[in-house]
Amino acid sequence: MENEPEYGIQRQTKKSGDKFMLPISIVIAGILIAGAVTYKSGAISLQSLTAKQAVQNRQATLIDGGKILPLEQEKKILETLIANGTIDPNQLSEVSELNLLWAFGLANKNQILENGPIMDSSYGGPTNMASVGGWTVTTGSVMDHYDKHSLVALTVDQQALVEKIAKEIYRPCCDNSTYFPDCNHGMAMLGLLEYLAFQGATEEQMWNAAITANMSWFPDQYQTISQYLKIKGIDIKTVTPQMLLSAEYSSGSGFTRISAQVPQNLQQRSSGGGCGVDSGGTSATPQKQQGGCGI
After folding, report:
1. Helices (DSSP H) in the chain: which residue ranges?
2. Position 59 confidence tier, pLDDT thresholds 50, 70, 90
């Protein structure tokens, strides 16, 4: 029997048919594309009584949860992150879905955080990144938690799948792929991919979940992209998550190019926003590579 990681996430064998559904809803050019992603259900277990007692004594509320992963699963993830100190509820009493996945991606031990471009010294190291230095709500130092907790241990094949997809997913706030998670959105996407891979999701299911997440985090940008598709006469049936999440559409420079071709009256710009710990908002302005989205 495999050893389960301490304070980690366990996969449990469930009876046939006892699976949960992950709803995927994508609105492109006023057309709703609805589907459902089913993957192996897992449960998150706190492995020590002390950790459980700590969670009971320190509370934090998950807000806007259940859009990307099932709500009960996200609540369990929150309990685990509070137990290991990645989230200090005394500093972050309300945790958005984006922040939850951000914390998960930052804390989970993974080769991308250990050996990927985020470790390139020419960028100043991980703490120079908004996704790391900007996570200021831990117990202790953020580097006490960066790549420190074995929340999910991926197989070789699962790790390869995460890396493959991560290199192909971009975000409108900068020009980096998820493989370089220098901002909160990138780190959150990495956490989502790791969680899904561990639960046995297929590549298609992971792509569907990724576009759902990006559209949740960047609604105005994807509304503009949908208008661009209409203007260009692109058949909605040919649009795939891989296409929308590519650098051509979803990178900062790609979105800037698309935005310039869409009339301003067809674009939405929500007030506020930002990419801080206490915000689930977005930034429409591309950021420098080494900076990403800060607080």
Report:
1. 49-57, 71-83, 97-107, 111-115, 130-133, 156-166, 184-198, 203-217, 219-232, 241-244, 247-250, 252-259
2. confident
